[in-house]
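Q: Hi! Curious about what Cilia- and flagella-associated protein 161 looks like structurally. Here's the sequence.
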Amino acid sequence: MAYIRTYSSRVHIGNWTEDVALEEDTLKDFLDRRERGELTIQKTGLLKQNILKKVDLSVSTDGWLHFGDTVMLVNPGSERRHSASHQQKTPQDPAAIGINADVSGLSANSSIGAPCAVSGTRTFEPSARTAFVITSVDGSPVGETLKYNQRFALRTTNGFAGGLWLESDLKTPLKYAKMSRLQEVSLTDEPSFLSCWNVVYFDPQERLEYEGLPVPVNTKVLIAHCKTNHCLGVLGNYVLWTSFGKEYEVVAQTFLDSHKAECDVNHWLFVTANPGMESQAILDRPDPMANTTATENLENQFTESSDNRLADEKQDM
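A: Let's find out. The predicted structure is below.
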């Protein structure tokens, strides 16, 4: 039978000197780790303090997406949640891709290291965690518009976020998404063909017509992986416990509906800043027609149609 201490260390029974020495060593180790900032609670606080710093998103004056723009990748949500085998008739909240860093290897003077996981957060405040830079992989200059089906890379911001690259690869028996076991999406410190993506028009019936045209911001699109041809997706029925609470799992998997069109979990918005308000994402812009009644809407529509009719008459004269 193994030795079990039934009394406290102040009661001198058995190997009491060893018990006292063990408690003293444990306390000393705790104090040393606290001075070095190696406690888990200290690392978590350091992570939140640096990664949640506000980041200014780019402002698109012409409505197009450009190389060098700092944006957020936001899934607008869906009316039902999707999984690999079935569909649940429950809604899925909007989610933005964010860094899901492991605090075990974090230190006070270092940035986030690779490999690093990502997850779908329901916090839409632009920060170092949710901001990504549109980066060229074919030599296109900064400021040039990104076009449909043109290869590009998604990179986190410099500084504490580490300038990591969003990548994916075919799943293997040893590498797959933790919850859904689908194709994993993660961050790496070296760009490669695995970190190449392209934007696809979300409507398959008009996809060919839009190929080669500029990509608009704040508009629903698909983000496809160049190597595997799987679309980026967020799964609301697979919940991850992170340092920031419950979040969704992000994978590279194309989900098709009965019409062979990509489902809502594969739809994404390149969210930019609101030109009217500093440091505000355009996703948070209030609807200008939200406070008008139905009668006022009809009056506005009638006024617009009348003005258009008068303008046409003047041109004919």
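A: A fun detail: Confidence is low (pLDDT under 50) at residues 81-89, 285-299.
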